[in-house]
Amino acid sequence: RMEGYGYYTLPTGTEYRGSLWDGMFHGKGELMLPAGGGYRALWDRGLATEGKYTFADGLQYDEEKWRYCDGYDRRFYTEICSGFKPPGIPQLTNLDPPKIIPEGCYDCGDGFYDPKTRVVVDYKRKFLRNADDEEHEWILGTCRKAWVITAEHKPKP
């Protein structure tokens, strides 16, 4: 069994760095996600007893004092830090410029979702997961979709 301080990479690409005991996360450690961000916690026999999540852009999640994109303030974190863009130039995501979504797909936050195959891949096109019915419906109703640009037919004069 793994014991002491070490690194462990999960099949999803998430990496744990920290203390291990009897093959479990135990003590101080951090889960680092492939798309950025991480969860630093104090672990007890594989369970987090307290911890903080930090997003890839440096924003720390705070359950009690969360002021990011709530019902009162719809700004993205980058808009809070850097201000708004001039009128007429929209900011569609927290990333600016936003990721270019493959045709027919959706940007679901940790990667792209193809509703035809029901597969989520990360931004480097590496498989993450198959979406169940609940996630499928949530993505279709909530997430940003690739622009569908059609050529307008113009009759000859």
TrEMBL record:
List, alphabetically, the SUPFAM superfamilies matched: Histone H3 K4-specific methyltransferase SET7/9 N-terminal domain (SSF82185)
Keyword Lyase carried by entry: no
Query: Predominant location of this chain?
Result: other
Q: Please give the InterPro entries that the UniProt record associates with this protein.
A: Morn5
The places in or outside the cell where this protein is found are: Cell projection, Cilium, Flagellum
Which Gene Ontology cellular-component terms appear in the entry?
motile cilium
What keywords would UniProt list here? Cell projection, Cilium, Flagellum
Official protein name in the record: MORN5 protein
Gene source species? Leiothrix lutea
The top of its lineage is: Eukaryota, Metazoa, Chordata, Craniata, Vertebrata
Q: Which gene encodes it?
A: Morn5_1
